[in-house]
Write the structure tokens for this entry.
Amino acid sequence: MPDIESLLKEKRVFKPAPEFTRQANWNKKTIDEYRKLAARSPERFWAKMAKENVSWFSPWKKVLDWKPPFAKWFVGGKLNVAYNCLDRHLEGEHAWRRNKAAIIWEGEPGDSRVLTYGELHREVCKFANVLKGLGVKKGDRVCLYMPMVPELAIAMLACARIGAPHSIVFGGFSAEALRDRINDAEAKVVITADGGYRKGAGFALKPAVDEALDGCACVTDVVVVERIQNGTPMQSGRDHYWHELMKDASATCAPAKLDAEHPLFILYTSGTTGNPKGILHTTGGYLTHVTTTFKAIFDIKDEDVYWCTADIGWVTGHSYVVYGPLANGATTMMYEGVPTHPGPDRWWSLIAKWGVSIFYTAPTAIRTFIRLGDDLPKAHDLSSLRLLGSVGEPINPEAWMWYHRVIGKKKCPIVDTWWQTETGGIMITPLPGAVATTPGSATLPFPGIDAAIYDEEGNEVPPGAGGLLVVRKPWPGMLRGIWGDPERYKKTYWGTFKNTYLAGDGAHRDKKGYFWIMGRVDDVMNVSGHRIGTMEVESALVSHPNVAEAAVVGRPDDITGTAIVAFVTPTGGTDAGAALNQTLRGHVTKEIGAIARPAEIRFTDALPKTRSGKIMRRLLRDIASDKESTGDTSTLEDFSVLAQLRESEED
Ligand code: PRX
């Protein structure tokens, strides 16, 4: 693998600065101690973390009940996530946080809101009462389809307060995708907005909900935040404005005392079939994982302004915009719009304006900014920054070095954090006060996480050799299942190696034991840090009447990491030209959302298949990236297909 070889040559080492280490929440001594404890007993380590970092109404009776592949953590314990994120910062030694900024929000047009812990608590209690008023009970699912506005965080916490699991659907998904997710979770209420701001203009969101609900019998009510005041049509009896429901809502709402294993949320993510998986996370273990990792990895202090640029619609936003930061009493920033409006330096101006000290973003964004040039960040005062993070995809050493030099001014540690929707929280990461970093490596597993690299037979590979990334022991933030599909859960994650979690990523480990994540090894693409299944895009394409067959693969891309390339065989008599190309791109956008729109569509009379009829994706990947195919083609059904595909050019 040439990628592995080039990365293996990366030898630069950045040791933690003594000034940073001295003030770190977790210094070397603490970490050594925790690593020792976790190596002896991960359960004892996590129990210690659960006690120190989370507030419980009643203690657990058993730390872990592990009947592979089903885990229960902190069995019998009772707690509430909203209580941990809000109430406990208004009481006792932390009572002063009542007037501390919990959320700093800025809208794309430049409007802003700062919600203190006291205000956020009040809003959350009120909205929890609104939900109750709409008949939402403990266990009922609530779907959130919203732009990045404070009401999104308020709605999440209100759901958590009353024990109604939320299912957040990223606002970029289409009506069709939303409908599937609402139906799969059987959501009772949908929370949305009339729209949001993006690229300098308002966009409507509510019409997608109206369209989705055409095919949903389970939804009784829709709550609409008025953000762009576009006079969106409201269906009487079903649709209510947020501000009207909130007007008379009481600000008193006791947090429900929930079981540690009570479902906190479902979040859909792409897999290797056409149907997204509803990843289920529960209360006690998840909160322990995200609260502990946030405190240790982001080294959070009360004075910090922390900004994670992820949309809350993805897991990064769940765990490290909302739950992790608020459970730690931190100030978390949210920004509504695109990074390049009104100018390409918006992010840097936001950092300077709000004094952001900890910044967490994705390599795809970093690569975009590299292209835009150093002058933009250099024109802003970024001296408030003290720690940088990266997530979502492998960060190439060049991007890492630019981040370090131009944004971090060579003084900020960089935490390259590997994790997934399924893992709930960060799994492999540097600890900024203690672990030396090397560009491109996520370094070491967090204490209590038993990660390893296996060959296909399930043997651990020697240093330097590539293999499959696995986790050998359960961990508190792990997914508890796929909503409504325990068999798929067993098969996808636990069906390859006995009692071992298969992440779906390729990786290798160097002599120091550092992990180097190479990307997905299954039919899941990582486009701008977002997971998209090739099968999902294929199903969307073949649902168009002019498409007979389609195969989708990823091609490496300098900015987005992976670009989607579709090979399409049109139905007989269809003109495979520019018009069809445009139509099909639009069709995928309608079926899934703009994030899944192919960068390139190539028309072909036939797709290369094995004799048993399986599409040979490896070949297609080579063709898409203009590589000479060196792989075995002996099972290819029709060699002429290959030659034809090479000739096919994008229109
Ligand atoms: O391929 C890995 C990549 O993102 C996948 C998980 O995607 P998702 O569930 O959407 O969650 C993204 C944010 C946690 C992984 O299987 N990935 C995530 N972080 C890294 C990464 N690849 C390399 N390095 C990372 N730091």
In short: The chain is about 30% helix and 25% strand. The radius of gyration is 24 Å.
